[in-house]
Amino acid sequence: MIFFHDGNHAYKLYGNLLKNGTLDNLWDTHPPFQIDGNFGGCAGIAEMLVQSQTGEIELLPALPSAWKSGSFKGLKVRGGGEVSAKWKEGRLAEAGLKALVPGSFRIKLPADSANMSIKINQKAVSLPVADGILEVALQAG
Asked: Using one digit for the tens of pLDDT, what is the confidence trace for 47-75?
């Protein structure tokens, strides 16, 4: 069974990795490739916070209820972008996207994003949103 966009299930699996699949020295319990479990756990956390496999950047796609508030920065997305975000009470509060190379980025906005404002280089802008997707062209940096 596959659990897409199920943050609580992903959180449970992550807890199982730490409890049952990690030694006291934080190495994974499956030699000789013990680092694989460590990298896999980190990748799992990143996928809970941001996904971009479908050509769209989706923020907090599998946020578990245990992570009520938090933030991240510096996660890379496909297309040459770097994302940061903050959330409070399980809802996206702020997000940033930095282009590492010139390009166009498609951002899937949260359902409750009607009151969000958009800034490019700290200047408020108005951009069209079609079917919950914001598309923005950015220069590197």
From this structure: 999 999 889 999 999 999 999 999 999 99
DSSP the chain: ---TT-HHHHHHHHHHHHHHSB-TTS-BSSTT-HHHHHHHHHHHHHHHHEE-TTSSEEESTT--TT--SEEEEEEEETTTEEEEEEEETTEEEEEEEEESSSEEEEEE--TT-TT--EEETTEEE---EETTEEEEEE---
What one-character DSSP code corresponds to residue 116?
A: -
Report pLDDT for 70: 97
pTM over 0.85: no
